[in-house]
Amino acid sequence: TTRKTWADDLPDQSLTLPEALAGYTIGGAYAEHSEGRKGSLVPGKLADLVILDGDIEAVPAEEIGRLNVIRTIVGGRTVFEA
Fold first, then answer.
1. Exposed end of the chain (fewer CB within 10 Å): N or C?
2. Rounded to the nearest 5 degrees, what angle is found at the Cα of 56, between the Cα atoms of 72 and 51?
3. Residue 8: Cβ within 10 Å count
């Protein structure tokens, strides 16, 4: 999301935050033909997710990397809690 074009004659290759999130969630599930089991938070799908200490959509893109994971849930079960 913060990638800058390094030459004026090259196309912009940065992603918006929604594009990046989709790529890591439903896009990744689609790539491995498992979008019916994971990739989005809907009833019946695996609940694999992280909970951060801030709102990824509210902080400036340059500060996303400073957010901390406070809980990781895999298959609906907490596997890490800060």
1. C
2. 15
3. 5
Model confidence pLDDT, tens digit, residues 36-67 = 999 998 999 988 899 999 999 999 999 999 99
| Nearest Cα residue to 42 out of 20, 25, 19 | 25
Dmax of the chain from CA atoms? 48
pLDDT in tens, 17-29: 999 999 999 999 9
Q: Hey, what are 54's tokens?
A: 């801030």
- Residue written as token pair 């609940």: 47
DSSP E strand stretches across 1-82: 49-52, 69-74, 77-81
